[in-house]
Amino acid sequence: MADSGLDSTTKPASKAAEQRLLRHRQELHHWQKNAALLRRRNLITGLAIGTFVVGMFGYTILSVKQERILEELDDEAKIHIIRGPRTGANS
């Protein structure tokens, strides 16, 4: 009787361990089966984020260049305004 009591307590514990092992094997099989798909999705996501970052950087650099050009044009316009209009007498 004492032996049967020990078997009954160890049996559910071993059954739970077997179920965990089976579940682990199923998850491992699932990840191995879908690894290529996951890599492809990660690559596409990485390329999309990288493209967005490079585009934003390029846009920022372009807009800063345009601001500098506009500031230079404004400075030249101010100089011409200060000098006054060109007429035959002051040209």
UniProtKB/TrEMBL annotation:
Q: Which InterPro entries match?
A: Coa3, Coa3_CC
Q: How does it sit in the membrane?
A: Single-pass membrane protein
A GO BP entry: mitochondrial respiratory chain complex IV assembly
- Location in the cell: Mitochondrion membrane
| Cytochrome c oxidase assembly factor 3 mitochondrial coiled-coil domain sequence ranges | 33-76
Q: Does the keyword Transit peptide apply?
A: no
- From the record, give the transmembrane residue ranges: 43-62
Please identify the protein, giving its name as recorded: Cytochrome c oxidase assembly factor 3
